[in-house]
Design a protein that fits this description.
Two copies of one chain form a homodimer.
Chain A (H helix, E strand, L loop, with lengths): L1 H23 L31 E9 L1 E5 L4 E3 L4 E2 L3 E5 L6 E9 L9 E4 L2 E3 L4 H20 L11 E7 L9 H16 L6 H11 L11 E5 L10 E6 L7 E8 L8 H11 L3 H21 L3 H20 L10 H17 L4 E4 L6 E6 L3 H12 L7 H4 L10 H10 E8 L5 E2 L15
Helix pairs in contact in A: 1-2, 2-3, 2-4, 3-4, 6-7, 8-9, 8-11
């Protein structure tokens, strides 16, 4: 890590001195077909006379969604995205939820174009400070490699075209920025062939979107808050692999017609600034929860895992409610989901299901595969009509647990679909490209 | 106070020794018409041969509802009803909300009958520990007076018949136990002609229902938490009279179809036991809020009053949400009311309305009379069709503030009635009796 950081600082300095002039050039070089790298200007490229002949470098990756069981909420430094507390998440299976991102660069891309992103078929903004921080950091790392080894292609000087797609609807309100930034960082890191570890890349992903740092790993992932002012120790590491606890499952109740709430970035800072109860959460509640959570995962103790999960979710939402003006991410449908989980646990006589809610009304319910009848079966009795159930699982279920009318009615009216999933891997390199060999977006 | 407490302790001892045998007598004396007081058994009553001739002593009082602006939530001693923190309330006007209670006792009431209560036309249970605590304490005080002055009628030995009525529906979910216990205590105290001050009586009302102690006063009332183990300093005192701030008003949005939630007594102890954030509330948040609230009332600073009110309500509900299992008293209609208040304040460019919620979904919105158009007018635009508006006020209103469709829709669908009211007096002696001179309930 030490070597990498030294390289990193050198790279940043290098970038500032060398590349900045390149990006402030108002016009491309006279000949549109020849992109002359200002770094090795004594070696004009003459091999190719058409833009299409310039190699298009590409790297493609899928990245997962993660759902925190000990929540991130609050920054101690907004610029570097440093949190007020540690957090811990479960990486969901990419078979069900994933972002596919291809990063590409080429000397044939006009410098004037700058970097670009097409997300789910539409041009997305990359000018924001957060995305720029990711680009800048990744480029700096690449530039440092290029400076150390002049034979490497000067990828750092080329515009980057990113094309990204989610296999789940944005309207599902499911942590898409975490998967998105993790995919962006991983894809560019692969494009640049950076030797960085996932933890080292998580430092960069963190600057794009805090929770994205946890999507650099599969299984059970902690984001250590760190204490360095420069954020160099605020990164993700893996608590356990997905295969450590193979029975873990999750079912997501997607709540329909959910009005977009307060943005997380804005909301959490309002909480930091105005909640009288917040300090207690970050000083005492979360550290205890982190310790208990790691232990429960290592020991595969579902009851403990579940209780910490539910209580941390409640604690997080309580600090939102204690914000001024108060922030309410959960609604009556969310609360009905809580009542359903409580009914399931009461009927089972022990904790077999755990709810958790992010900054939105969707319920994520964790359970172990052996309790599928109790958990999924009970929910299926009420919500069997909606989309998302995996018939292979539900067709054999026959739960005897019924929810009270009020709870069932609210769920029926308010849940638009379910997503059944499990725990999965971190980013996976793929040969499925969203950018063609000629640099154009693939028509899909 | 000191004399009264000494008398109090003597009275309790006296009661234990003297009266207990009376109440353990399995049968009434042989002659049904003659109730012989065991205390002065050497003076048999012979004046009257019919039960009807025995004097029926009566006292009737009305008592108000109070709505806390710094909330009571949590007991440090469940038996004595001692709170974890101080609280402060606004006494609402009895013209709109009040309990009328008549306390009566008579030697003609059969001893076997014991004490009784008819509440809103139905027999109510008085055997519970809390109600018994009130009867016992009040009787003890009366017994002490009688012991010191043998010429006084031995009211302490007679069964008590209470008849009580609210002028507001119980379904409104409006703090009726506070008004009820305050009325009970005040009526019996008047019946017994106790010299106790309202603060001294609040010590007794507190044992019936914590928040009832604040209904012994009008205007703005604090319940000082106290620190004595015996609760002798946990009582109410008046911060300011109603007339101190004559412009203060309140409008209550009664939320329909509200399922009965977790009882306050049970809920608050779950919060004490399980909420990680609760300690911070009682140690730091509430003491600060009490100080700021008293100051804002004394200075008639509505903006400060409003902000503390809203923030304390949010803090209280946050600790409920942080309880395990979580307690949710507010629902989506409650939150729509919050959004409405926020919209009203935003449109006004300053804080002109304050919401607060008790252990239920009803919204109580405080405002000053001069802002009636902004506050009531805006709510009336959306809720004009429902019952409870005072035409004299609403007919001239013409607010230009409109609520967003979502908020308005939820309010329209969820609010069943409104109650417009103001700040009023503490218990008021009345000649309106619910018990007739012959001891029977008055037919109404």
């Amino acid at each position: 890590m030490g070597y990498f950081l030294t390289l990193h600082r050198f790279a940043l300095l290098f970038t500032a001195i060398v590349l900045l002039p390149a990006y402030s050039l108002p016009e491309p070089p006279a000949s549109p077909s020849l992109y002359q790298s200002p770094i090795v200007s004594h070696q004009p490229r003459r091999e190719s006379l058409t833009m299409a002949a310039e190699k298009v470098y590409r790297a493609s990756t899928t990245a997962p969604v993660n759902i925190a069981v000990v929540k991130y909420w609050g920054k101690r430094d907004a610029k570097l995205n440093l949190p007020t507390n540690s957090s811990l998440s479960v990486t969901l299976s990419q078979s069900d939820l994933r972002t596919l991102t291809t990063a590409s660069c080429s000397a044939s891309y006009p410098a004037s174009e700058g970097d670009s992103l097409i997300l789910n078929g539409e041009a997305a903004d990359v000018a924001g400070a957060r995305t720029q921080a990711c680009f800048r950091e990744l480029r700096a790392h690449r530039a440092a490699l290029e400076a150390a080894d002049p034979s490497l292609p000067k990828l750092s000087a080329m515009p980057v075209r990113l094309v990204s797609e989610n296999n789940f609807p944005t309207a599902a309100g499911l942590a898409s920025s975490a998967a998105g930034f993790a995919a962006l960082v991983r894809a560019i890191a692969d494009l640049y062939e950076l030797p960085a570890s996932p933890s080292e890349l998580s430092l960069i992903a963190r600057q794009g979107s805090g929770s994205a740092c946890r999507s650099l790993f599969g299984g059970y992932v902690a984001w250590r808050m760190g204490d360095a002012a420069d954020g160099s120790d605020s990164l993700a590491d893996q608590v356990a692999e997905a295969s450590h606890w193979p029975e873990m499952r999750a079912v997501v109740l997607v709540v329909s017609a959910a009005k977009k709430g307060v943005s997380s970035t804005s909301g959490m800072q309002q909480t930091v600034a105005t909640s009288g109860l917040f300090q207690e959460r970050i000083t005492n509640v979360v550290p205890r929860n982190m310790e208990a959570m790691e232990k429960s995962i290592k020991e595969r103790d579902f009851s403990a895992f579940a209780q910490v999960t539910m209580r941390d979710s409640n604690s997080f939402h309580a600090t939102c409610a204690d914000t001024y003006p108060p922030i309410f991410y959960m609604n009556d449908v969310s609360r009905a989901a809580i009542r359903a989980v409580e009914a399931i646990n009461t009927a089972a006589g022990r904790t077999v299901a755990a709810y958790t809610f992010d900054a939105g009304p969707n319920a994520v319910i964790y359970y172990l595969e052996k309790e599928t009848e109790a958990v999924v079966g009970t929910l299926y009795r009420t919500l069997g009509e909606i989309d998302g159930w995996k018939a292979a699982t539900t067709q054999s279920l026959n739960s005897s647990v019924s929810l009270d009318e009020g709870t069932a009615g609210i769920l029926k009216a308010g849940v638009s679909r379910v997503i059944m999933t499990g725990v999965g891997e971190g980013p996976i390199k793929t040969d499925e490209y969203l950018v063609a060999e000629d640099g154009s977006p693939v028509k899909r």
